[in-house]
Write a structure and sequence with these properties.
single chain; five-stranded mixed sheet; 4 helices
Length: 144
């Protein structure tokens, strides 16, 4: 996963479509599947789950990210998938992680809720907060 050419990024926020009681099992299933699938596709990134919302940054070859995006859009565990218009650089942020995971957080939940409430007009400040959140998250990766 060291190839830095043609890196495509997709960042989204979505609502979770399962109960709090199911959350631990569902998240574990997502992580187990994603770690191996992402590695085989050359995708790296991070997933944040707040208890009722997801945010994820995926990066890798465009075709692989687009295929994974289609899979997520069809996944019944997500609703109201909102793509964030973030301009990220040409490099990977999570080079050493096929899927870094962070969850649940009330602060992140409020931040992601702000994105969901502004689906039609993404606040530049909120989008920048999301970008900073992922940048902070990536600074703790073993790629350092």
């Amino acid at each position: 996963m060291n190839d830095q050419t043609d890196i495509f990024h997709w960042v989204y926020v979505s609502e979770a479509m399962f109960s709090i009681q199911e959350a631990q099992r569902v998240i574990q299933d997502i992580i187990e599947l994603s770690v191996s699938r992402n590695a085989s596709l050359g995708i790296t990134g991070a997933l944040i789950f707040t208890g009722n919302r997801f945010s994820q940054l995926l990066e890798g070859p465009k075709a692989a990210v687009v295929d994974l995006k289609a899979s997520i859009l069809a996944d019944r565990r997500h609703a109201k998938v909102t793509t964030l218009p973030l301009a990220l650089g040409p490099d990977r942020m999570f080079q050493a992680w096929s899927l870094a995971y962070y969850g649940p957080s009330r602060f992140l939940g409020r931040l992601l809720e702000g994105v969901q409430l502004q689906q039609q007009q993404h606040s530049k400040a909120v989008c920048m907060d999301i970008a900073r959140m992922f940048m902070e998250f990536s600074n703790g990766s073993p790629a350092d």
